[in-house]
Design a protein that fits this description.
Blueprint: H1 3-26, E1 32-36, H2 43-59, E2 63-67, H3 74-81, E3 89-94, H4 96-103, E4 115-130, H5 139-148, E5 154-157, H6 160-173, E6 178-181, H7 185-194, E7 199-203, H8 204-213, E8 217-221, E9 247-255, H9 260-274, H10 277-285, E10 288-290, H11 295-315
Parallel strand pairs: 1-2, 1-3, 5-6
Antiparallel strand pairs: 3-9, 4-7, 4-8, 4-9, 4-10
């Protein structure tokens, strides 16, 4: 490359960085796509739609939820990883985002390098639930039933974010139960309500309404503390599996190389939304706590979660496929 070409390249880059803050101030000037890598109706989808509605009001432009339910969120994540870093394609991920590296030999993207962290939005409790036909009324009775004859039972998961906590439960309780994977909470919950599967560890957002109605039996909370919404249900740890703790989270990313000014604007707007008192109250009713972290905190959190779930997968005896 000759001197003139170097100069042209430098001038173009300088012009881009100089105009980026102005572009961010004008953003958005057209609809924004918020990818949800799971089927409609689950906890991640519910939260995404709540955020999208309020972002639409803030932006003055539609924020459209785009469900891409396939391969534990990998297809939706790949869509965003390969999108233009212009702020018009974002994603709301769940814990599967950090779990997939432990369970997949290869991914079509780099979980740490191909995404721009915006903010962690919420932490959601997990709930061990069974169909009413299962005779167990508590965790100890469920463990006894599984040890007596595990062939009678299977469990469903909406993603690796709920499969791995169940595998951890199996490992720590010394039980076996067949796994039936689904592409989202809604289809898994439909089969659980219909009795096609007998149990599962589900996100509280999708499970609590059915537990309150009596259509499912809530045996225990996966977190280290009880649910404010279902205070009478004990934790798994205090129900016969000491030391057990698992929860799931959600957070927002854009494609890598998203301009910092745009990242900061998105962070500011989304954090303001999830920290609004009425938004927090509604999330608490659904078994979730809102967060609203900085991009740096969110990025470090993901790094730590990848390490954590890799250790849990190894403990549960799971190998990458």
């Amino acid at each position: 490359m000759n001197k003139n070409k170097y100069l042209t390249c430098f001038t173009t880059m300088a012009a881009w960085f100089a105009t980026t803050p102005a572009i961010a101030q004008q953003y958005p000037t057209k609809p924004v796509r918020l990818v949800v890598p799971f089927a409609p109706g689950g906890g991640t989808d519910t939260l995404a739609r709540m955020i999208a509605q309020r972002l639409t009001d803030v932006f003055g432009q539609p924020v459209v939820v785009d469900n891409r339910p396939a391969v534990d969120g990998i297809v939706g994540s790949e869509t965003v990883a390969k999108a233009a870093p212009d702020g018009y394609t974002l994603i709301l991920v769940s814990s599967s985002h950090a779990i997939n590296p432990a369970l997949r030999k290869s991914l079509p993207y780099d979980t740490l390098k191909d995404f721009a962290p915006i903010t962690q939005t919420a932490i959601q409790q997990l709930l061990l639930v069974t169909h009413p036909s299962v005779p167990a009324k508590n965790v100890k009775e469920l463990i006894a039933a599984l040890k007596a004859d595990s062939s009678k039972y299977n469990y469903g998961s909406s993603s690796n974010a709920t499969a791995l906590p169940m595998e951890l439960f199996k490992s720590m309780s010394g039980t076996q139960v067949q796994h039936i994977p689904y592409k989202g909470t809604a289809p898994m919950m439909n089969d659980l309500l219909g009795g096609q599967i007998q149990m599962g560890i589900s996100g509280a957002v999708g499970a609590i309404p059915h537990v309150k109605s009596g259509r499912l039996r809530g045996l225990a909370i996966g977190d280290s503390k009880r649910s404010a919404t279902l205070p009478d249900i004990p934790t798994i740890a205090e129900s016969g599996v000491p030391g057990y703790q698992a929860s799931i989270w959600t957070g927002m990313f854009g494609p890598a190389k998203l301009p910092r000014a745009m990242t900061d604007k998105l962070n500011k707007d989304v954090v303001r939304i999830v920290q609004q008192p009425d938004f927090k109250a509604k999330m608490n009713q659904m078994g979730s706590e809102t967060v609203g972290s900085t991009p740096e905190e969110w990025g470090k959190f993901i790094e730590a979660e990848i390490v954590k779930w890799a250790k849990i997968a190894k403990l549960a005896g799971l190998k990458p496929e």
